[in-house]
């Protein structure tokens, strides 16, 4: 494993345990002031005063370098040009008797109603339950029609706690229902119903868009949402491959054309 891979893996683990949004800005500033006081107690005053200045200078230098390399080195996750997300023809069902010739978006939200947030009792187990649930969805892509999900999103409009949100995408409602009866989801649901984590809040919303009623476009934007999704295509009894839903945006594309509607005269 390379140094960069090790750094990324360590960073991801730490981010799962503690994220910037877990505390208010004033709290982080208090942490910083405390660290400065500790450094002044154990380090020479000249070095202690120099450390925050060096950190700030490093951030400024990075900003200048990123600005100079705006379209060549920085923002490497951004895709140049316009792209659309669409289901491959080979992934579409032969019939829509189950309402599967469309797209399902499942919004899942969680809120830890405890002053300690992720440091509250059982918070680590809650996070593990969510991660195991998504791992099980990944392992059953072909069976459940799971397409993918966003990274963990946060709602900063909440002044008390910071809810976390996931948007996940599915080929049909039947697959989503089967996911809800899976082992990992059932375990988390049973623990929640048993009030094992009484301070835990959960919400979800489900949206089904039939064929011709959804579209997605990305312009100078990183892969996100459906742009990160992949369709599992069967190649054998136990073999499948993942195909990206992204493709270059067709010329003269409009909202209705991207939806595949016959009424392509209207534009957006």
Name some characteristics of this structure.
8 helices; 3-stranded antiparallel sheet; globular; 268 residues; alpha+beta; 5-stranded antiparallel sheet
What's the quick description here?
The protein has 268 residues and is of the alpha+beta class. Helix content is 38%, strand content 22%.
Helix and strand run: HHHEEHHEEEHHEEEEEH
Name the quaternary structure.
Answer: single chain
Gyration radius from CA atoms, angstroms: 23 Å
Strand content: 15-25%
Roughly what is the average pLDDT, rounded to an integer?
83
Helix content: 25-40%
Write down how many β-strands occur, each being a DSSP E stretch of 2 or more residues.
10
Uncertain residue ranges: 93-100
Q: In this structure, how is the largest beta sheet organized?
A: 5 strands, antiparallel
The structure class reads: alpha+beta
Number of helices: 8
Termini separation: 47 Å
Label the overall shape: globular
Account of the protein in words:
With 268 residues, the protein is of the alpha+beta class. It is built from eight helices and ten strands. Strands 2, 3, 4, 5 and 6 form a five-stranded antiparallel beta sheet that branches. A three-stranded antiparallel beta sheet has the order 7-1-10, with no helix packed on it. Helix 2 (25-42) packs across helix 3 and helix 4 runs antiparallel to helix 7 (183-193). The radius of gyration is 23 Å and the shape is globular.
């Amino acid at each position: 494993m390379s140094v960069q891979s090790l750094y990324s893996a360590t960073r991801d683990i730490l981010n799962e345990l503690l994220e910037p949004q877990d505390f208010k800005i004033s709290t982080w500033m208090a942490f910083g002031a405390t660290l400065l006081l500790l450094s002044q107690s154990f380090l020479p005053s000249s070095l202690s005063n120099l450390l925050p200045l060096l950190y700030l200078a490093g951030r400024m230098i990075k900003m200048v370098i990123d600005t100079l390399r705006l379209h060549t080195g920085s923002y490497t996750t951004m895709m140049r040009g316009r792209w659309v997300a669409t289901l491959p023809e080979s992934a579409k069902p032969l019939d829509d008797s189950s309402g599967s010739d469309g797209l399902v978006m499942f919004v899942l939200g969680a809120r830890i109603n405890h002053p300690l947030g992720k440091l509250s009792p059982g918070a680590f187990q809650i996070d593990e339950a969510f991660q195991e649930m998504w791992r099980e969805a990944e392992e059953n892509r072909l069976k459940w029609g799971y397409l993918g999900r966003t990274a963990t999103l946060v709602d900063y409009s909440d002044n008390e706690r910071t809810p976390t949100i996931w948007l996940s995408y599915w080929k049909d409602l039947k697959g989503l229902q089967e996911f809800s009866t899976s082992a990992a989801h059932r375990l988390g649901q049973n623990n929640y119903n048993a009030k094992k984590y009484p301070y835990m809040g959960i919400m979800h919303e489900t949206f089904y868009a039939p064929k011709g009623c959804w579209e997605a476009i990305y312009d100078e934007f990183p892969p996100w949402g459906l742009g990160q999704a992949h369709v599992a295509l069967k190649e054998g009894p136990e073999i499948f491959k993942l195909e990206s839903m992204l493709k270059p945006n067709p010329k003269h594309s409009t909202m209705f054309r991207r939806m595949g509607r016959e009424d392509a005269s209207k534009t957006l």
